[in-house]
């Protein structure tokens, strides 16, 4: 399975609008809680320099797209059911939310920075809700969910660990398998919290809760999208500083504006590239007065004020948090083609530290199983299976047929 970014938050804060703006999918959008019941999946794109310019070739992308030398590399997004208080106890769509969340490698938490949705996700007067509470509420729900999983049969695990001299971090990682939580995450948490790994039966309830909280932070890094930024007062926008003090990246965003711009762009009414701070009107005579007013509003209240709609920045910062590199596999390192003669066809995200053999497995299991060597298309040098890949590498895999 590839990398997934979970789009999370309370009902009615603009999650589905954000998801639609960030992907080509069309989740249902409506102004009441629980519109999103099934997790919607889609593909978001991250901008990276395409090697086509450097190699002076015209690329023919297959799994991604290239616009003027910028490659838009795909990463999966999952738009999850809205979360309400006590979801960790199964309230609302809590169990569904947490189940959908399992595979997410990082989270984009959509917060209504205009303060116009209450803790249940119902519309309320603008500025009535403190967005900082929403950030803390989501942290709490995920932490308590993990805590509940760890505490189930905790005494048995702790006893077994001590009697059979087993490592508590490996036993816990087995229990949390399928949640995207590794043994390394647990090992780091135990070390950071200075817990006695040889005597887990001595751990207090607070120790286990603190462990759950630390594991949440490192296994599901979270970015805060300050949505509806155009409708927020300066006082509420200042809350961004409070959120950043909690060690979060916080990005002002307007999902509605991005959706309006991408829709107008698809219809050929404007020229707009995701992440840009400008757009160009192509067919003014085809725009209604309402559309012109909306575009003027976006230009002055979003693009000029915040530098972009923030959606593309949220996507790219959430990928940066995961420390991923992009690699371009090819079958011919001279012409940079695959067997169908497509030039630089695919771009894959890989965790930093991935090897040539890891890439072979990413492309196809058989390639990994029958790996012989790889070739760096820039230098045409042979590289071994454990060679660590760099961001932007173009690599040919050679395998037994």
* Average pLDDT over all residues: 89
Helix content: 25-40%
Order of helices and strands: EHEHEEHEHHHHHEHHEHEEHHEEHHEEE
Number of domains: 3
Radius of gyration, in angstroms, nearest whole number: 23 Å
- Major beta-sheet overview: 7 strands, mixed
The CATH topology label of the largest domain is Rossmann fold
Structural class, judged by helices and strands?
A: alpha/beta
- The appropriate CATH architecture of the largest domain is 3-Layer(aba) Sandwich
Low-pLDDT regions? none
CATH homologous superfamily annotation of the largest domain: P-loop containing nucleotide triphosphate hydrolases
In total, how many beta strands?
14
End-to-end distance, in Å?
25 Å
Large-scale geometry: flat
Using the coordinates above, name the CATH class of the largest domain: Alpha Beta
Q: Count the DSSP helices.
A: 15
Residues in β-strands, percent = 15-25%
């Amino acid at each position: 399975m590839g990398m997934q970014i979970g789009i999370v938050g309370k009902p009615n804060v603009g999650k589905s609008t954000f998801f639609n703006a960030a992907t080509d999918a069309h989740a249902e959008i409506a102004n009441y809680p629980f519109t999103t019941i099934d997790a919607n999946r889609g593909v978001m794109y991250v901008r990276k320099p395409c090697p086509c310019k450097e190699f002076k070739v015209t690329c023919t992308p297959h799994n991604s797209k290239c616009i003027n030398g910028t490659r838009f590399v795909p990463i999966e997004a999952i738009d999850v059911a809205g979360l309400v208080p006590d979801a960790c106890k199964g309230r609302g769509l809590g169990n569904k939310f947490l189940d959908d969340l399992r595979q997410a490698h990082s989270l984009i938490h959509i917060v209504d920075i205009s303060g116009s949705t209450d803790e249940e996700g119902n519309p309320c007067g603008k500025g009535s809700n403190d967005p900082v509470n929403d950030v803390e509420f989501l942290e709490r729900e995920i932490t308590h969910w993990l805590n509940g999983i760890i505490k189930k049969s905790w005494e048995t695990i702790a006893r077994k660990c001590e009697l059979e001299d087993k490592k508590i971090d490996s036993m816990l990682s087995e229990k949390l398998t399928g949640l995207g939580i590794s043994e390394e995450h647990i090992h780091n948490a135990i070390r950071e919290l200075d817990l006695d790994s040889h005597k887990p039966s001595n751990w207090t309830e607070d120790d286990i809760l603190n462990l759950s909280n630390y594991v949440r932070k490192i296994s599901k890094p979270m970015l805060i999208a300050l949505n509806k930024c155009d409708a927020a007062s300066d006082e509420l926008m200042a809350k961004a500083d409070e959120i950043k003090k909690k060690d979060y990246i916080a990005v002002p965003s307007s999902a509605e504006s991005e959706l309006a711009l991408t829709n107008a762009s698809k219809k050929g009414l404007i020229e707009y590239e995701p992440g840009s701070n400008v757009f160009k009107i192509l067919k003014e005579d085809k725009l209604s007065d309402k559309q012109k007013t909306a575009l003027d509003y976006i230009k002055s209240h979003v693009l000029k004020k915040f530098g972009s709609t923030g959606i593309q920045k949220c996507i790219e910062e959430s990928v940066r948090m995961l420390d991923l590199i992009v690699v371009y596999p090819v079958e011919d390192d001279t012409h940079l083609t695959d067997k169908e003669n497509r030039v630089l066809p695919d771009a894959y995200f890989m965790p930093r530290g991935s090897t040539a053999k890891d890439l072979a497995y990413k492309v196809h299991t058989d390639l990994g199983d029958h790996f012989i060597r790889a070739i760096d298309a820039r230098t045409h040098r042979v590289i071994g299976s454990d060679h660590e890949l760099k961001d932007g590498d173009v690599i040919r895999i050679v395998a037994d047929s």
